[in-house]
Write a structure and sequence with these properties.
Aspartate Aminotransferase, domain 2, seven-stranded mixed β-sheet, binds D-serine
Length: 433
């Protein structure tokens, strides 16, 4: 399916052709990168709106004695509609993530994405050189949780904790490190950890050492919002996320925080880190938040987990070895160098590249214990996008069968191309937004 690009085609056919090609790719493969999704046409229209032409440094509110007061807090004129728009986005974010407790929390909808959101939060809560803790990247954390190549490790004293030997959170390890390094902030979030997180335990540890708890729920935002996975509030002081994963918004970031931290978080996003917000993205985020508040979205979010659990079961039945033996969430991590001989691959690169050629697109991923990060043993598979197009558990069975054939193909091009044709044919039966 391709979208209309009349104006673009007339002005710049080269770019129009690329847009059409990407539309077709997204409609003809099974997209299983755990962090990707499809935004609705409503979200896409809002994101493409003329709000993108507007500069609106500042906020639709001002802070007075720790209270947010709606009113023009911008530096440029012409904000009568941006103010209404951003206020709606903030109110919807609070209704989704802090229902019934909106007055105790604040939301900042301006971060350009998850990495700037995390840096803005750390910058708000820490002075340069102060210490924080996060899960190591190779164990399922995120670059911005203090990996040595990230700016968060350059400006702050970052301490990375590992998972336990069973690839699960080990609260003894975490409590011991917290006791030793006395972090001012603990940032807890995952990008390749398939299990649920016990925020009350993280909250206890943080409190015991006087740290603030930041929950990065980018991958699982829609699941925690509807309590399908444990909610980080009230244990976390701040919650960060991207808006384009489970939330199905445009690319962007979102911060929810205790009201008392609102002014310093706002100041850290703007003027400390960013300039003018991308108001067209804020428009798309507002629409995505409205959609995420609907009963349809709750059904969707439950189906995402049901599909992931079923795919995990089908993969285990067929001999794949899953890290932690299954999933509680939208994501499966498999160690393709283990499991039954018949479904093993040399490494995650071979399996993910062969699968992509066959039309099932996911990513290679390090698994705990990998010693060569450039040659990861694992793959990470997620169900948010495939569930958006309408796939259910029967489709997960079919995907598991294709994965077996891909693994057994030993990279044989004709086998992979044959599966690619089957996948393309199957995708014609789904609703791609
Ligand atoms: N790139 C995202 C992911 O795939 O998990 C994290 O930022």
């Amino acid at each position: 399916m391709s979208k209309p690009y009349e104006n673009l085609s007339a002005v710049d056919p080269e770019i129009a052709d690329l847009c059409v090609a990407e539309d077709r790719r997204q409609a003809s493969v099974i997209r299983m990168i755990a962090s990707e999704n499809y935004a609705s046409r409503a979200v896409v229209e809002a994101t493409a709106s003329t709000f993108g032409n507007k500069y609106s440094e500042g906020y639709p509110h001002k802070w007075k004695d720790g209270e947010r007061q709606w009113g023009n807090g911008r530096y440029y004129e012409g904000q009568e509609f941006t103010n209404q728009l951003e206020q709606l986005a903030i109110e919807r974010a609070l209704r989704l993530f802090a229902p019934g407790k909106e007055s105790q929390y604040h939301a900042n909808v301006q971060p350009l994405s998850g990495a700037p959101a995390n840096f803005a939060v750390l910058n708000a809560l820490l002075e340069a050189g102060e210490s924080f803790m996060g899960l190591a990247l190779g164990h399922g954390g995120h670059l911005t949780h203090g990996h040595k190549v990230n700016v968060t490790a350059k400006y702050f004293a970052a301490h990375q904790f590992p998972l336990g030997s069973d690839a699960l959170m080990d609260f003894d390890i975490i409590a011991k490190m917290a006791e030793e390094v006395k972090p001012k902030v603990m940032i807890i979030g995952t990008t390749s950890y398939p299990r649920s997180l016990d925020y009350s335990k993280f909250g206890e540890i943080a409190k015991s050492v006087g740290a603030l708890l930041v929950a990065d729920v980018a991958h699982i935002s829609g699941l925690v919002a509807h309590n399908i996975l444990p909610h980080p509030l009230p244990h976390a002081d701040v919650v960060t996320m991207t808006t384009h994963k489970m939330l199905r918004g445009p690319r962007g970031g979102l911060i929810i925080c205790r009201k008392e931290l609102g002014e310093q978080i706002d100041r850290s996003v703007f003027p400390a880190l960013q300039g003018g917000p991308h108001m067209n993205n804020v428009a798309g985020i507002a629409v995505a938040l409205k959609e995420a508040l609907s009963d349809d979205y709750v059904r969707y979010a439950k189906a995402v987990v049901e599909n992931a659990k079923h795919l995990a079961k089908c993969m285990i039945d067929r001999g794949f070895e899953l890290v932690t033996g299954g999933t509680d969430s939208h994501m499966i991590v498999a160690d393709v160098t283990k499991g039954k001989d018949s479904v093993r691959a040399a490494n995650g690169i071979v399996m993910s590249e062969d699968s992509a050629r066959a039309g099932i697109v996911f990513n290679k991923n390090a698994v705990p214990g990998d010693e060569k990060p450039w040659r990861p043993s694992g793959i990470r598979i997620g169900t948010p996008a495939s569930t958006t197009v309408g796939m259910g558990v029967a489709d997960m069975e079919q995907i598991a069968d294709w994965l077996v054939r891909i693994a057994q193909s030993k990279s044989d091009g004709s086998t992979l191309d044959a599966i690619r044709r089957e996948v393309g044919e199957a995708m014609t039966g789904f609703r791609v937004p």
